[in-house]
UniProtKB/TrEMBL annotation:
Residues 4-199 form the Thioesterase domain. InterPro entries: AB_hydrolase_fold, TEII, Thioesterase. This is Thioesterase domain-containing protein. Belongs to the thioesterase family.
Amino acid sequence: MRGIATIGVQYPGRLERYQEPFITDVETCARVLAPLIAEVDAGNLAFFGHSLGALIAFETALLLDASGFNIPTLFLSGHEWQDSPCADQLYVSTDETLLHAVREMGGPGIALFEQQEFRELVFPILRADLMMAERYICREHKIFHGNLYVIAGDVDPYIDQHKLERWEKQCRGKFQLSFFPGGHFYLEDNLTNLADNITGALSL
């Protein structure tokens, strides 16, 4: 995005952090990330998180906000407000059930899951992520004081629009809900428009 520097977050247990144990709780992950992000000299910092990343971004922003580190803008993508653990506990399902769920969801690199070696490498990571997402509860008293932009695909089967709108009660600043054409991985076909959307919001 022109004029905006992007900084990625790498969770423990992945790539260069592969020797570190997985984190299986959203709030724990936020507590690990918040002090690291507080050390970043990035000026006007905003968060963007998709799916599980949206929950982690929200909780991390709350911790930084409470410590006096201002995060004025938060973009939550592809995840509704969640007031109870998910009924479907895929993180404890069989490999066969998990593979079926992955096939249904689709997304980038989906063909790789047909290879057993790849599944053996990735499924432990996926289960840790699912454990975080499926057990998460957003408490009503958790309020973000900046501007909150919620984004989703307009045919995402994992999204309830009313629960997307419910995010508004978790912020004190401006709230905006936007939809792009597509499902859970709408980002693949809308990167340019999404970047324009984010850039426009940050320029206000």
